[in-house]
What we know:
By secondary structure, the chain is mainly beta. Helix content is 0%, strand content 45%. The chain is built from no helices and eleven strands. It has strands at 3-7, 10-12, 18-25, 34-39, 46-51, 58-60, 68-73, 78-83, 92-98, 115-116, 120-124. Strands 2, 4, 5, 6, 9, 10 and 11 form a seven-stranded mixed sheet that branches. Strands 1-3-8-7 form a four-stranded antiparallel sheet, with no helix packed on it. The radius of gyration is 13 Å and the shape is globular.
Amino acid sequence: QLQLVESGGGLVQPGGSLRLSCAASGFTLDDAGIGWFRQAPGKEREGVSCISRTGSSRNYADSVKGRFTISRDNAKNTVYLEMNSLKPEDTAVYYCATRKRPPVMCAMAEYDYDYWGQGTQVTVSS
């Protein structure tokens, strides 16, 4: 069974940091791009960041530029989202996603993806 599993979420104070992981089981991540999305209560899901298959192309939402960094370790079949200087407005459920056929490059729109993880909660609060 093909699965994406996010981990690393939690409760953090404003200004703090977290590193989210997106691991694949049942398939490899290294032949497609990966996107990170988030959904806050009462809001639509939005694209946060994406990374291409090789890591040569990366993109970030304006709201997280300079604070979040996406990376991938294909040997570990894992993609990471390093989140620094967290703000209360970063509170959301964070999801990773991919598309295998055809393989997605680096995209920030939901409709470009068809495999999704279950999400991990990030709460930024004092």
